[in-house]
Design a protein that fits this description.
19% of the residues lie in helices and 44% in strands. The chain contains 2 helices and 9 strands, in the order ααβββββββββ. It has helices at residues 12-29, 33-48, and strands at 54-61, 74-75, 81-88, 93-95, 98-111, 116-130, 137-143, 151-161, 167-176. Strands 2, 4, 5, 6, 8 and 9 form a 6-stranded mixed β-sheet that branches. Strands 1-3-7 form a 3-stranded antiparallel β-sheet, with no helix packed on it. A hairpin with a 5-residue loop joins β8 (151-161) and β9. α1 (12-29) packs antiparallel against α2.
């Protein structure tokens, strides 16, 4: 949503951001760098509330320890397909002093001709509780197409935020050799 220039001084998010930037600046000047960082994280979370649910830096990876990008999208039969991304724009549920995210994913596998080979709702569930809101959540997925013959397939992943009812999706094309 674009903000019109004549509403800038009163826009509630901008008022909140200005206060948080001032808080960060004051903390930094007084040598309280951790407090400055906390205020900037709050500013990121404030902006994040207005973002659509988004999977960023989504890529096929060779492993989920070092996150080395996979060199190709070609897999052997039964070989795990590992996907990594950073999720932003999700909602938080406040539980006492903690913040919890609540994410589920669905997937759909399509053959080259568009035929649905398989699907599963709520295939993955991610719940993370932290003492403060976090603006990004790393999400790793693993799919195995164990009975798929040689060919090209698309994996459609739908990510659902159960706290905000937002959702997003992405598609990966893979080849079984």
């Amino acid at each position: 949503e674009e903000i019109k220039k004549d509403t800038l001084p009163e826009h509630p998010v901008l008022v909140e951001l200005r206060a948080l930037f001032k808080e960060a600046e004051d903390a930094y000047i007084s040598g309280k760098k951790f407090f400055a960082m906390d205020a900037l994280k709050k500013a990121m979370t404030t902006v994040g509330r207005e973002l659509p649910l988004t999977a960023r830096n989504m890529r096929l990876v060779a492993d989920t320890t070092h996150y080395k990008t996979r060199e190709s999208n070609s897999y052997g039969p039964g070989e795990p397909i590992l996907i990594s991304c950073l999720l932003t724009g999700y909602g938080f549920k406040r539980e006492g002093e903690n913040y919890t995210i609540d994410i589920t994913t669905d997937f759909l596998v399509l053959a080259e001709d568009g035929k649905v080979l398989g699907s599963q709702e709520d295939a993955y569930y991610f719940s993370h509780t932290s003492p403060g809101p976090t603006p990004e959540f790393p999400m790793d997925l693993s799919y195995v197409l164990s009975d798929a013959p040689r060919g090209t397939y698309t994996i459609h992943t739908v990510i659902k935020d159960n706290n905000s009812n937002k959702q997003t999706k992405f598609i990966n094309e893979i080849v079984i050799r």
